[in-house]
């Protein structure tokens, strides 16, 4: 996409004199920001616009054109694109609105735009885009007023790219970031993504040598799997993506047939995929920019141990609380470090950690403290809190702080608890220092740096996932073919799981009480009886389950009672019989399942059992397949994770068997992603360590897609 981001020649279709119209504003921005390429205004009547020769159409231009910007009424756009194809222009940027966002007529226009672009071989950015800004060439192909700010250091080695579905917000990020002296290379408003989509732009930006971070504002993923590929490529390059994903509050809408489907909301699926890909998230503009600032300006911390340096005791306490809430440690400094600090910190200060240098510290108090902390083996990152309401401190030791920050091999984050004066802001810029202005922003930036380091560490040690041999896959297909209904009832669902190496307790379907007695005698008492029918999926609600049956005499009345309750509950249900199974031994109750997300593919869910999953929403999701370590990590994300450690005298549960089960379930999810929509395993009892798990119930929902 070099010709899109770095065009040597541009045609502006819809250019006009003045800045009253979008075409005029865009042309004015291109000229006024100093773009040095060749510019060709297009207007059917004018011969000159903005001091430049104008042309009636792009075909009339003798020069080769790399990019055409289209700012004309929506009804005329398709013909303009057709002419661009005739002229062999590779890219068009459509800022015109009136397409998908404008009802049925606009949707028809957008469909026609896509058809025409493919027909003539022109790639389309937009429509309904706010444009493009490439800072290195000063290409301001936008009508946004937010670019009216000093452009920054074009030679900066670590810059930020912005790809946004909201033009206003994307250019707003740039405007806000520049005020904090962040440097940017590309800002792109993607518009309606009729052709080029988010990942196309980000893929190009992330490959640029000066790009350190890509910021994204996303409402929806036009191509979710392509985005996952992009995120993985970014991880290889060690270039983090920081994303704001909105639309999280939209209700799922469908009535899911399984517990797993109901609990795996689209927002949770997106979160799980982003976590797995190492994509960092932000919840507002400030957080987005703070995280990007941290990743751009500092080395990643090697571990979670932080030192806080502050002249204000209250600030130190507040920072400590915020850091600990994010899982950081503040270890006490060793005796040698403290003894050195005591030589210049007043006796009423503190040398432990946080280090309270007090307001009466020496003129070199910060830099002297930094020199000590640089040598402390139990410190991985440092936060210097100060007041930069005046530049006095930066005058006295700013240069030394900057030198140490770049040389000690640990991130040194500056935070000002007062507004930063213009004089201080200028000195910080000259020194190449970034300064955070909120405790939350500073700590969240450090947490994002830590999280990204953890992700990269994990990526260094990929684990092999064992797939099924061919003959077993053939058996799986045979089981599915033998039971062609939409719902896969419990017995067949467990047959599938057993083929994937998941242990299943003894059980069988009985067609009459005597048959049930024979099965129970073979399995061994006590046993459980349940109706078996693909048409009765909520067995407890239907009261068609009998537990803890102790002997032969208890079987017949339980069998008949189950059938007598099943018929009025679901008069049209096809009943296969009654399932007889061994009673599960006591254990920690969990649930698990598979969801086939339409955008991101197979997902694995684990949840605490009983009311915890549904009422307390104690669930965790991850994309399949899972390695063993990923399965353990997924389990640890649950609030009920501690129940597996044993509480109130209970033994620790068999975590490893639970994790192995999730690995196998994830392989099943990948293998059957075209056959299943959902798969519910609920409950799962996790027995004491070394005693395995018991799958008590299971249910599958088949895909109805043809082919």
TrEMBL record:
Gene Ontology MF term list: acetate-CoA ligase (ADP-forming) activity; ATP binding; metal ion binding
Domain called ATP-grasp: residue spans: 494-530
Record's keyword annotation contains Nucleotide-binding: yes
Superkingdom of the source species: Bacteria
Keyword ATP-binding: yes
Keywords, ordered alphabetically: ATP-binding, Nucleotide-binding
Family: In the N-terminal section; belongs to the acetate CoA ligase alpha subunit family.
Name the record gives this protein: CoA-binding protein
Provenance organism: Orrella marina
């Amino acid at each position: 996409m070099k010709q899109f981001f770095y065009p040597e020649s541009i045609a502006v279709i819809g250019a006009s004199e003045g800045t009253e119209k979008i075409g005029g504003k865009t042309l004015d921005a291109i000229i006024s920001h100093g773009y040095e390429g060749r510019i060709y205004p297009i207007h059917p009547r004018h011969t000159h616009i903005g001091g430049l020769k104008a042309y009636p159409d792009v075909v009339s231009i003798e020069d080769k054109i790399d990019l055409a910007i289209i700012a004309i009424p929506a009804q005329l756009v398709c013909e303009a694109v057709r002419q661009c194809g005739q002229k062999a222009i590779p890219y068009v940027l459509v800022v015109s609105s009136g397409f998908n966002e404008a009802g049925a007529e606009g949707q028809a226009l957008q469909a026609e735009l896509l058809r025409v672009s493919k027909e003539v071989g022109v790639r389309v950015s937009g429509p309904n885009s706010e444009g493009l800004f490439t800072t290195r060439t000063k290409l301001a192909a936008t009508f946004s007023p937010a670019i009216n700010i000093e452009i920054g250091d074009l030679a900066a080695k670590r810059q930020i790219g912005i790809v946004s579905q909201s033009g206003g917000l994307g250019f707003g990020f740039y405007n806000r970031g520049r005020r904090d002296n962040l440097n940017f290379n590309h800002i792109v408003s993607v518009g309606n993504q009729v052709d080029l989509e988010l990942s196309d732009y980000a893929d190009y930006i992330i490959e640029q040598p000066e790009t350190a971070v890509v910021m994204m504002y996303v409402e929806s993923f036009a191509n979710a799997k392509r985005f996952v590929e992009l995120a993985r490529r970014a991880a290889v390059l060690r270039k983090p993506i920081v994303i704001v994903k909105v639309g999280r509050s939209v209700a799922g809408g469908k009535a899911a047939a399984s517990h797993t489907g109901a609990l795996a909301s689209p927002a949770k699926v997106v979160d799980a995929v982003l976590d797995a890909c190492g994509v960092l998230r932000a919840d507002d503009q400030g957080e987005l920019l703070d995280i990007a600032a941290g990743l751009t300006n500092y080395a990643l911390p090697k571990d979670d141990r932080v030192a806080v340096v502050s002249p204000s005791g209250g600030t130190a306490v507040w920072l400590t609380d915020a850091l600990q809430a994010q899982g950081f440690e503040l270890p006490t400094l060793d005796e040698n470090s403290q003894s050195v600090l005591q030589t210049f910190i007043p006796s009423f200060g503190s040398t432990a950690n946080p280090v309270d240098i007090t307001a009466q510290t020496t003129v070199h108090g910060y830099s002297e403290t930094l020199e000590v902390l640089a040598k402390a083996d139990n410190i991985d990152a440092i936060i210097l809190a100060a007041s930069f309401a005046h530049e006095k401190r930066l005058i006295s030791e700013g240069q030394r702080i900057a030198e140490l920050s770049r040389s000690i091999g640990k991130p040194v984050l500056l935070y000002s608890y007062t507004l930063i004066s213009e004089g201080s802001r200028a000195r910080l810029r000259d020194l190449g220092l970034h300064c955070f202005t909120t405790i939350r922003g500073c700590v969240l930036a450090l947490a994002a740096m830590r999280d990204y380091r953890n992700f990269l560490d994990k990526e260094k040690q990929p684990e092999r996932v064992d797939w099924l041999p061919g003959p077993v896959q053939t058996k799986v297909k045979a089981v599915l073919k033998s039971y062609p209904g939409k719902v896969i009832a419990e017995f067949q669902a467990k047959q599938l799981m057993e083929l994937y190496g998941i242990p299943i307790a003894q059980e069988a379907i009985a067609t009459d009480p005597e048959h049930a007695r024979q099965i129970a005698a073979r399995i061994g008492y006590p046993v459980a009886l349940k109706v078996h029918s693909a048409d009765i999926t909520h067995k407890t609600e239907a009261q068609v389950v009998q537990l803890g049956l102790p002997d032969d005499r208890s079987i017949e009345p339980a069998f008949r009672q189950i059938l007598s309750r099943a018929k009025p509950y679901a008069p049209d249900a096809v009943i296969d019989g009654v399932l007889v199974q061994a009673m599960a031994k006591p254990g920690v109750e969990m649930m698990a399942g598979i969801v086939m997300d339409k955008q991101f593919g197979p997902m694995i869910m684990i949840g605490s059992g009983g009311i915890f999953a549904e009422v307390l929403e104690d669930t965790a999701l991850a994309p399949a397949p899972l390695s063993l370590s990923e399965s353990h990590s997924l389990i640890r994300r649950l609030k009920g994770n501690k129940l597996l450690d044993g509480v109130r005298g209970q033994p620790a549960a068999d975590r490893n068997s639970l994790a192995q089960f999730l690995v196998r379930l994830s392989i099943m999810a990948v293998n059957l992603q075209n056959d299943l929509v959902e798969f519910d395993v609920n409950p799962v009892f996790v027995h004491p360590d070394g005693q395995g798990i018991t799958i008590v119930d299971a249910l599958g929902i088949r895909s109805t897609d043809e082919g």
